[in-house]
Structures are given as structure tokens and as C-alpha cells.
């Protein structure tokens, strides 16, 4: 029986059990895709990650990211949670930044006091979403036409479409029929009013994933990375702001967005709440 380090890390929360958990399996080079998928189904979290030796000489480690249904080329909170687990397991980066290899290539991660932050990867698809598809999604979410300000693709590997809404109250009012989203992962967001010039701007956001084990994601780094690039391109947000997510699910997700030069960094806390050993004799066939 092969034993492996197993961690569950709570990401994007200022206190335990209030963020988005990810399961991390270390030393996974000898696991097959079928075995990884089986573990991900068993953990029953939105994502489970597997840490392997990098094949890219410029990376510190490689990660494969699985939902309960399929593998993802990139995801935000699994990136930060995996990095925290890798560091705690004795990982030492080759440079000042940590470099993760995943399905979209290299993702840079930096340490900022107690927080971790990843550099938003390039968008694979951006720009205006098709009007008929937007209209169908608007109806599925129960949003009135005048409450929808804009809709764009912000796909960095997870397929996100984002809807900019008139107010945070509209965001929190949504009661979606996810069966009518047509398989498109959808994020919604709106800005709060800033009362003083010294107050850090804030947004409210939610994320819906049709067909997933968790139809509403608690806190979503990949979505916020895509939205941040849209907002910065159209000059709809300042260089520094915070996104709140998950409150209707009993979470208090806090995603810090910071623009530094040409880079947009998506950051937050990553707290290891489960630290143990995965001991499992696999009987799945390897194909």
C-alpha cells in the first residue's frame, strides 16, 4: 500500500470553514487518470488536485485538477490551495516566485505576507457573448433586462461567461434554474458604491455551473481572474479591489485583486484544515 500526503486547504477566507476547500494529493506521478478521477469523485469537493514532477524545466511543480466529473486545465482556488500544500510539504521554489505547471501552461504565484496570489493567465476567449445565448442565461437566472449591463466571455480554461449587473442586490437576489444554462459556466457580479476615497472598492459575485455536483461555487478564483482582465481593459475598476463571494452559501469569501504593472494578481488566504495521509490500495485497471 502506497501512502501519500493528503491535505484539504480552505482558500479565499479570513477564517476557517468560510472559503472554498480543495483536496490536494502529493506525489501523484504514478496515478493513472482513472485513479485520479476516482479520488476526485470520492472527495466530492468542487476540485481535487494531484501534484506531480514538472515536465516544464521552468516550473517548480505540475498539477492536474479534477472536478467530480472531468479534468480542468486551470482553476483559481485549486492553484492557491495546491501551492500552499506544496510549500508545507517542503517545496522550495527555484526563484522568488513559485511557478506552477498546469493545463494552460505556467502560472506564476507570489507570496504576499500571509496571502498567496496567482498572476491571471491569458484569456482563451474574450469579448461580447452571443445575444441569444445571453438572453437565455438572463432568463435562467431570473434577471430583468434593465438589470443586465453587459455580458462577455472571460474564459481562461474553465469556460466562463460573466454578466455585469446593475447592483449587488440583484446579484444576491438571483435564484437560478441551472438546468437552463446550457452547460455554460456563468458568473455574475456588481460593484458596491464607495463612500470615501480611502475605502477599498468592493464587488459582490456569484458563480453557477450547470451539471456540477455543486451548482453554485462558493468562491471562484478563475472567474475573478477573467473578470479582472475585462474590468481593467474597459477601465471599469481601480488597480486594487476586493470581491465578496459565497455569502448565500454560508461562506465569506474574500478575493483580493491587484494590478501591478502588466500583471493582475488574484490573491487570498489559504489555510490547511486537514493534514493527513491517503492510504488506498487501488484496484482500478490502468489503460
From TrEMBL:
Signal peptide: none annotated. The active site is at 47. Coiled coil: none annotated. GO terms for molecular function: isomerase activity. Pfam families: PhzC-PhzF. InterPro entries: Phenazine_PhzF-like. GO terms for cellular component: cytoplasm. Belongs to the PhzF family. PANTHER family: ANTISENSE-ENHANCING SEQUENCE 1, PHENAZINE BIOSYNTHESIS PROTEIN. NCBIfam families: PhzF_family. This is Phenazine biosynthesis protein PhzF. It comes from Dyella japonica A8. The lineage of its organism: Bacteria, Pseudomonadati, Pseudomonadota, Gammaproteobacteria, Lysobacterales.
Amino acid at each position: 500500500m502506497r501512502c501519500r500526503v493528503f491535505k484539504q486547504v480552505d482558500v479565499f477566507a479570513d477564517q476557517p470553514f468560510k472559503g472554498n476547500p480543495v483536496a490536494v494529493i502529493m506525489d501523484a506521478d504514478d496515478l493513472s487518470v482513472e485513479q485520479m478521477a476516482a479520488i476526485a469523485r470520492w472527495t466530492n469537493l468542487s476540485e481535487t488536485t494531484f501534484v506531480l514532477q514538472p515536465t516544464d524545466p521552468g516550473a517548480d511543480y505540475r498539477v492536474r485538477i479534477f472536478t467530480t466529473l472531468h479534468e480542468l486545465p486551470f482553476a483559481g482556488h485549486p492553484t492557491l490551495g495546491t501551492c500552499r500544500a506544496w510549500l508545507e510539504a517542503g517545496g522550495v521554489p527555484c526563484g522568488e516566485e513559485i511557478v506552477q505547471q498546469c493545463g494552460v501552461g505556467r502560472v506564476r504565484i507570489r507570496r504576499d505576507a500571509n496571502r498567496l496570489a496567482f498572476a491571471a493567465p491569458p484569456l482563451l476567449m474574450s469579448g461580447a457573448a452571443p445575444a441569444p445565448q445571453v438572453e437565455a442565461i438572463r432568463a435562467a437566472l431570473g434577471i430583468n433586462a434593465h438589470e443586465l449591463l453587459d455580458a462577455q466571455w472571460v474564459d481562461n480554461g474553465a469556460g466562463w461567461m460573466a454578466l455585469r449587473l446593475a447592483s449587488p442586490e440583484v446579484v444576491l437576489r438571483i435564484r437560478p434554474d441551472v438546468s437552463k444554462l446550457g452547460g455554460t459556466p456563468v458568473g455574475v457580479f456588481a460593484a458596491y458604491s464607495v463612500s470615501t476615497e480611502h475605502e477599498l472598492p468592493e464587488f459582490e459575485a456569484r458563480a453557477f455551473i450547470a451539471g456540477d455536483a455543486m451548482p453554485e461555487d462558493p468562491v471562484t478564483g478563475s472567474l475573478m481572474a477573467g473578470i479582472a482582465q475585462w474590468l481593467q481593459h474597459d477601465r471599469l475598476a481601480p488597480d486594487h479591489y476586493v470581491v465578496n463571494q459565497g455569502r448565500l452559501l454560508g461562506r465569506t469569501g474574500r478575493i483580493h485583486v491587484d494590478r501591478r504593472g502588466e500583471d493582475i494578481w488574484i490573491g487570498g488566504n489559504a489555510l490547511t484544515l486537514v493534514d493527513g495521509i491517503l492510504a488506498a490500495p487501488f484496484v482500478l485497471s490502468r489503460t
